[in-house]
Amino acid sequence: AQSVSQHNHHVILSEAASLELGCNYSYGGTVNLFWYVQYPGQHLQLLLKYFSGDPLVKGIKGFEAEFIKSKFSFNLRKPSVQWSDTAEYFCAVKVMGTDKLIFGTGTRLQVFP
Amino acid sequence: DAGVIQSPRHEVTEMGQEVTLRCKPISGHDYLFWYRQTMMRGLELLIYFNNNVPIDDSGMPEDRFSAKMPNASFSTLKIQPSEPRDSAVYFCASSSSEGLNTDTQYFGPGTRLTVL
Lengths: 113, 116
Prior knowledge:
By secondary structure, chain A is mainly β. Chain A has no helices and twelve strands. At the A-B interface, strand 5 and strand 6 of A face strand 5 and strand 10 of B.
């Protein structure tokens, strides 16, 4: 069965530190890839997505992600985090020809001023 | 567009009572998904519809849960009877199979359900 792994369950950073959150998936075919963010007490919001083309995708709020097909990875990065980035981050994969998003378990990010 | 709309935002009820959660998807979207989020189990897909037809309900916990989509702009998730372990945040999401944002799910604000 397809699965999505987010190895970092809880990340604590100081403001201005660089961020990289890992995401790996277990399907070898064509996939669409997503990162969602959930701020405390709020719903999931789309941060960025990759469907095809340039494997380096830029999203909102200075986030970017790189699709590395050979590694089945779609890691999320931000060069300098802010306190307002404190949230939970979910990676999700949609296998072509299916309807469902397969979500990772999420990574909780805490940024301290 | 107003986005996905859910009501109520908060619901507190007593064990054994019927609970109905409502969702209005984004206009023009042909897919609607119901999720449940808890600390213990994370985000779980309960059921999804395509063109108002239930496609996969394998995530519905048990027969106490039912979902309907009578038309393209409205869906309900019903729990009868409710139990304390049903306490969670229930999200509705919708997506379109066409256009620039195909396959991208947009989430509603959620309903926080507490069953006492």
